[in-house]
Amino acid sequence: GAVVSQHPSWVICKSGTSVKIECRSLDFQATTMFWYRQFPKQSLMLMATSNEGSKATYEQGVEKDKFLINHASLTLSTLTVTSAHPEDSSFYICSARESGSYEQYFGPGTRLTVT
Amino acid sequence: KQEVTQIPAALSVPEGENLVLNCSFTDSAIYNLQWFRQDPGKGLTSLLLIQSSQREQTSGRLNASLDKSSGRSTLYIAASQPGDSATYLCAVLMDSNYQLIWGAGTKLIIKP
Fold this sequence. Notes:
Chain A is built from no helices and 11 strands. By secondary structure, chain A is mainly beta. In chain B, a hairpin with a 5-residue loop joins strand 9 (86-94) and strand 10. Chain B is globular and about 45 Å long. The A-B interface holds A 6, 34, 41-46, 49, 91, 93, 102-104, 106-109, 111 and B 4, 31-32, 41-44, 46, 49, 89, 91, 93, 98-100, 102-105, 107.
């Protein structure tokens, strides 16, 4: 149980375009989802926390207009990187948490490369 | 502000050796501490979770300890194997807001 999937697993896009990453909880209802970014040889950095049906809470320094997060259902959250630039190239990992639980279950990550 | 530090950043040892990875944190107000494994270009695999009230957890050849008051945790790997090669991350779950704060990881290479 407690499986989280991400799609796509990797994506290459051209500078200036937008790309959407999906995060799904497959066998539980995720009232809260988290989006992390990981640059090479660095730690995971929390980008934003989203609760189902409400606006995401972004961490300091993360542009909410650039990284659009939608958590419209209890099993799906999406992260859209708008007007992507090469510096947005990174590994994006989502996690999901059930209501009343503190444990996060992690997706396999999405490698984004912006050329 | 919580800071999590992992030492060493990288470690290379021959197969069969026992080894210890270290994780330290500055704020002891944690709910739990977790150790994860990450293979290159892959997601995270949870290895061990230690609640703040616990001192250690064991799973197979892995043993993790927690000294909350001193802000330290160690991951002990016994009889290392080439398949143990990966980056090991520790993360603490904060008491205040249940956010995970991550260390930068230790890259482990086990030489055959």
